[in-house]
Amino acid sequence: MKQEADILLRVEKARKLLNGNTSRKKRSEIGQFLTPAPIASFMASLYGRTCDNVRVLDAGAGAGALLAALVRELSLRAERPKSIMVTAYENDTKLLPYLEKTMVLCRNTCSETNIVFDGVVLCEDFISNAVADLDNGLFSRSGNRFTHAILNPPYKKINGESSVRKRLNAAGLETSNLYAAFVWLASQLLLPGGEIVAITPRSFCNGPYFRRFRKSFLNLINLRRIHLFESRKEAFADDSVLQENIIFHGIRGQRQPKLVTISVSKGPDFANATQREIPFEKVVLPGDRDAFIHLIDDDEGKQIMERMSRFKTPLIKLGLEVSTGRVVDFRSRKYLRQNQERGTVPLVYPCHFDKGFVRWPQPNTKKPNAIVCSDQTQDLLVKSGHYVLTKRFSAKEERRRVVSVVYDPDQIKAELVGFENHLNYFHARGKGMPSDLAKGLSAFLNSTLFDRYFRLFSGHTQVNSTDLRKVSYPPSEQLYRIGKRIGESIPDQETIDDILEQECGEDG
Ligand SMILES: C[S@@+](CC[C@H](N)C(=O)[O-])C[C@H]1O[C@@H](n2cnc3c(N)ncnc32)[C@H](O)[C@@H]1O
To answer: What does the pLDDT read at residue 241?
Structure first.
């Protein structure tokens, strides 16, 4: 079995060589992060039963690490296939000699184990080909439906005006990232019962821009396994990929499973991974119109989901909405003023957040404290009142993901106020809300429970208004009760958490 051991080493050698010859910047531009051998082997190990005639799709195959790992895995199984046919798409001609070589190694591996092998390398755009194949339906080129899809697709934004975007829209998928397009098309090209394993950023699990993708993906694919990495730098350590990646395994079919396996490892040390079975309905909540995928990876995660599940009030039932601050500072530059002066109103940035309230003005900030109030800026301003604000961006190292404060009109004398675009604001149909409701809501958003809950389903450091809109909140009477217990500055974390438990606990 010499070839079998060789094949991964050879592909890994090619990866290192290619990485050495292309700068990280270039690789990032073309979305070319090649999969290290241990990850490729792990991915290949996730496939279920082997069928007699395996048809593999590797879309964006690079040097062929993934298809090689899969061929190796299948050839080592006790129940081996009779034949393996591989279709590999790769549109970068520089990689083709490596990919062709990998195909030769696969052929050799198969011949050692009496498996018939056929490998096709297509130096073509996967997207146009797949869309054409799907369009042609029954009349598509034979061989263009697969039992196994294995993918580490390119991660790149798709330009809104591009022909790729138009082609995808015509095929029924609206997505702004190539990786989602690859996964969706590969899933469509699977035969019923066909399996997909992919390594992708985890942004699709909850990002608002991936809603349509998530919905059609979950309609098509039964999610069986999700693997998470504890540290976001680990999966592609030598590539310094900063995206948080996940690996998932799914089967094309109608019904979602009862349980999804969620596993976590620090990096590619899969032997030490922790693993648990989570009911599918806790991963994707029934009736969730956004179909968020909650990545609950431990007991604590389960407990958090359970504790949050007692809150059932949608924001709209509280009479509230959440929006992104309307003042985009670089577009309104000529109306911004460092300090308050005649004809201006307060402008609030995250730098005005201080101990649970907006402290305005801030003398020591580089950010403008005021915005001119004129006909041109009217639409950017809101009437003074009690608003709850959250930061939209937090640094990865920051202790809390969600940071909330109250804008209290009793502390800041002004008729109108501008909220800058780096923050979200909760409002009652464009106006302020009762003081106790604002304080209660802000305390809830600042609680440890909410912060942990938010981290569970958010892989990035951004706090989008869409994310906040879809959370279920405590009923208004509980928020009012919490609010009444908050004074002029926010209590310490322990006290907030105690208040939440006392007012909203099982007996609250
Ligand atoms: C993230 S890399 C992964 C490569 C390989 N699957 C692996 O795991 O090592 C994605 C690959 O897709 C290729 N690619 C990008 N856009 C493509 C397209 N439209 N059609 C086919 N291949 C594409 C890139 O050149 C790159 O090699």
So the answer is: 52
